[in-house]
Amino acid sequence: MGALTWAAEWFDPGGERSADDVTDELMRALSGGIVRGSGxxxxx
Length: 44
Known about the structure:
The chain has 3 helices and no strands. By secondary structure, the protein is an all-alpha fold. The longest helix has 16 residues, at 19-34.
């Protein structure tokens, strides 16, 4: 979550990744930590 709030500081518009690429990666990381697929369920 911290990377998301600092994106304006470290994102380089002239860099090799577009804003859309960075957004996709951040959302993938965020949602991967929150949402689990049905095959990933652990039995406690």
